[in-house]
Amino acid sequence: MTSVWKSPCPFTTPLIPSLDKIASALGKSTLGSFSVVSFKDKQKSEDGSFHNPGTLLHTTKHLNIDSKVENPPSQIESKDNTGKRATAGSSKAAEYEALTDFSVPKSEPQLPCHIFPFNKNRGFFGRATILKQIEAVLLPRTTDSGNGDPLESSDLRTFVICGLGGVGKTQIALEFVHQYRNRFNAVFWIHADEVSKLEREFNNVAITLGLVAKDSVESRDYVHTRDLVLGWLAKPLKSYKQLEDEKSEEATWLIVFDNVDDQDTLINFWPKESTGSILITSRDPMIKTSYYSHDTSITLPCFDDKEAAEFLLKLTGREDEMQEREGAQELVSVLGGYPLAISQIAPVIARNDYTFREFYEKYEKESDKPEWFEQRIKSPVVRSGYQYSLATVFALENLKKGRSLLDALSVLDPDGIPEYLLEAYEAAAAWKGYPPTKELYEIARTELLQSSLITRDRSAKKLVLHRLIQDVTRSKMTNEFFNEVYGSVVCLISAVWPYEEDFGFGNDMYRWGRCSELYPHLLKLRMLSSRLKLPTILSARSIQGTKLFLDGSW
What we know:
Layout: E1 3-5, H1 15-25, E2 38-39, E3 43-44, E4 50-51, E5 56-57, E6 61-63, E7 78-79, E8 85-86, H2 91-99, E9 113-115, H3 128-138, E10 157-162, H4 169-180, E11 186-191, H5 195-208, H6 222-234, E12 253-258, E13 277-282, E14 296-299, H7 305-316, H8 325-334, H9 339-352, H10 356-366, H11 371-374, H12 390-393, H13 403-409, E15 417-418, H14 419-422, H15 438-450, E16 455-457, E17 462-464, H16 467-475, H17 479-496, H18 509-528, H19 540-552
Parallel strand pairs: 9-11, 10-13, 10-14, 11-12, 12-13
Antiparallel strand pairs: 1-6, 2-5, 3-4, 7-8, 15-17, 16-17
Helix pairs in contact: 3-4, 5-6, 7-8, 7-9, 8-10, 13-15, 17-19
């Protein structure tokens, strides 16, 4: 009679010698057919790693076990070397029990294990209050004994930082990791903007942590290594060698999911029912209300004027030059306290020995020129590990539905753009890229909101964006395209402007509210008009602009 035994786990290599021993212990010298576990339709990548394996096929292992062996281990009788019978509790019975234990020995975790790609940013500035907030949520609680042992916790602790690209989310996360890494037995920094990156970096964690041997077959299976890591995070034992009667000691761990562009990418990589700490950075403000945000989340603001001026003075080495402080305040106000912009202009100012006032005047005249925004910071002292310039950090080239709406916003006053102005679709019909319906407008607006390029005041129904986003957007326009955008926005404003129907002096009270709300946008257009190429042939559209500015001048 042939009995069929099905493997309880997918690890075949450690089981093969055990099967030989079992057959020997049962008095059989030969094994029946033995098939290794295979994966159906595995796809192999260029580096030899398996991605997205199909159904795991557990093939059966056939053992020629005598049908008379039906009793449980406690009733098995055998003979020892002296010919005496051995019963339950004897060495042979114990050997049977040991041989029928099919558990796979686990590799010991290699702790401490700290994996993060960037060195400490020696130019890090400010953000002390936010670091304290993160500390209060994510640091492991310790006992009152003073020995630093962590308290047991059944909760996963999370902290989410949202905000515009270049505002400092990653730098804050990096500073937290460097300040507090010794409070965690394991720290894993995961680039989370793509699933492929998550797969590779979880694989690296599994190898570095010692859960799987480097260059082994298992180490090339990304699904397997991901599951090994998630399994350890759920039960992060410091050692698997602890005795059963000892209290298992668990490790403390921190994961940084950096730059989560799409929260759905975390679905298969989220540590469920775990007890560690997770720090997330993302541009998408919706992640603050998602499943991943259990504890605390913030939208990271730019520096206020005082912080921004101190940051600029520090980067340029002019902290002690009192005559430069007023110029610094003026310049950072124009830049809106945006950390990346301050970091990138500081080397330019220092290299050319500009005063802050000189640079301010130059920037005001030439802010539409693309070369202002193409510069990258090369000094590791300023932005450790940061590879973006102002031209690339906003990822405008990745916009699919919202780019035309952003183009329109770039020539309006940034501090409050009424949506009824943007919803005058028919007035912009000549502009092929502009959203022609409310549904398409809302899709475009959502994409800009998800990228943190704009914010929305729901109660006032107004959009707000940073001035530098406007400057970068316009710098990517050709003069011909700028003319098209400018003319279309003039038509949008004209469609909602409260023109006086009859001849008068333009001071009717019913017009005051609407005119005062739209007037800042006329001023913005007038300021940008120096780039405008005047038409050689008059048209109804060009006359529309003249009519609007004449009426608005009253």
